[in-house]
């Protein structure tokens, strides 16, 4: 098991704050860009269970937005075009040119779709890890968003009082040192204000992505059993897959599909990218 902590933590200045980009693997291989869902406190470690199985065949890159991982806690605009532009900027600062294969989890599905809509030549394909679609959030309405924001705020208060405890579901992929680091980052980032701002912006972002039309590129979608997400999740995933002619793979597991089915997913990704 490789220790990702042996690699230098690379921080780049974006909007006068520090943003972390993790990269490993062969620089001459296709670039896989891992994009975390809302509330994933340490994406660099969260995705390791999957990318360690792909490292021989791809250039692995994990973007940690503000409020995530080793990046600064900075309440920047969460308007989706601003979010995409910051991610593009950090890639440019790191000298990582496209085209990219985007691997969004959950909320970042909107970001991956929007990236393709705005900068089509930069996105070769999208591989969704139980990625959200615009319709997912459009079906929520404002009441559901308000409810979820209230939950985040309540959880933050509980964490600050020491009433919440963290347990790494993906710890079998991590070294002891990485587990310690992941715990430190959870204490730093969990339920922070950046996540609240993301939730507040999600409906308008979904509306913008939906209005821009369907993307045209190869798409592969790994879909959970829907039990840990919102009602009609699987229905919305299937509808989106049909509209963009995606390859859809149903998995009988929780929302963090890479925790449960990393062997299957890594094999399918290799076959898909060939």
Can you put this structure into words, describing what you see?
This protein is an alpha/beta fold and 274 residues long. The protein has a single domain, classed as Rossmann fold. It is 43% helix and 16% strand. The protein has helices at residues 43-46, 48-51, 80-93, 108-118, 134-138, 141-160, 176-189, 193-211, 233-244, 257-260, 262-273; strands at 11-14, 17-25, 31-35, 59-64, 100-104, 123-129, 219-223, 247-250. Helix 3 packs across helix 4 (108-118) and helix 6 runs antiparallel to helix 8. The chain is globular. The protein starts with 10 loop residues before the first strand and ends with a helix. The relative contact order is 0.16. The mean pLDDT is 93.
Write the layout of secondary structure elements.
Blueprint: E1 11-14, E2 17-25, E3 31-35, H1 43-46, H2 48-51, E4 59-64, H3 80-93, E5 100-104, H4 108-118, E6 123-129, H5 134-138, H6 141-160, H7 176-189, H8 193-211, E7 219-223, H9 233-244, E8 247-250, H10 257-260, H11 262-273
Question: Could you write a compact summary of the structure shown?
Answer:
43% of the residues lie in helices and 16% in strands. With 274 residues, the protein is α/β, with parallel strands linked by helices.
């Amino acid at each position: 098991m490789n220790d990702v902590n042996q690699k230098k933590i690379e921080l780049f200045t974006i909007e006068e704050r520090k943003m972390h980009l993790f990269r490993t693997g062969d620089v001459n291989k296709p670039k896989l860009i891992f994009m975390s869902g809302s509330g994933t406190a340490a994406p660099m470690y969260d995705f390791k269970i999957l990318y360690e199985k792909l490292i021989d065949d791809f250039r692995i890159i994990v973007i940690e937005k503000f409020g995530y991982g080793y990046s600064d806690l900075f309440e920047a605009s969460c308007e989706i075009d601003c979010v995409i532009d910051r991610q593009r900027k950090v890639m440019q600062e790191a000298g990582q040119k496209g085209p990219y294969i985007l691997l969004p989890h959950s909320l970042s599905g909107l970001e991956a779709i929007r990236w393709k809509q705005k900068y089509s030549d930069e996105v070769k394909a999208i591989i969704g890890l139980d990625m959200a679609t615009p319709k997912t959030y459009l079906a929520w309405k404002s009441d559901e968003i308000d409810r979820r924001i209230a939950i985040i705020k309540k959880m933050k208060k509980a964490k600050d009082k020491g009433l919440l405890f963290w347990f790494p579901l993906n710890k079998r992929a991590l070294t002891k040192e990485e587990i310690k680091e992941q715990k430190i980052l959870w204490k730093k980032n969990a339920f922070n204000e950046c996540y609240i701002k993301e939730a507040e912006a999600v409906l308008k972002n979904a509306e913008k992505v939906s209005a821009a039309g369907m993307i045209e590129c190869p798409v592969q979608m790994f879909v959970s059993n829907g039990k840990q997400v919102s009602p009609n999740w699987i229905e919305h995933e299937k509808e989106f897959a049909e509209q963009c002619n995606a390859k859809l793979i149903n998995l009988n597991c929780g929302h963090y599909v890479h925790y449960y089915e990393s062997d299957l997913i890594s094999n399918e990704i290799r076959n898909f990218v060939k």
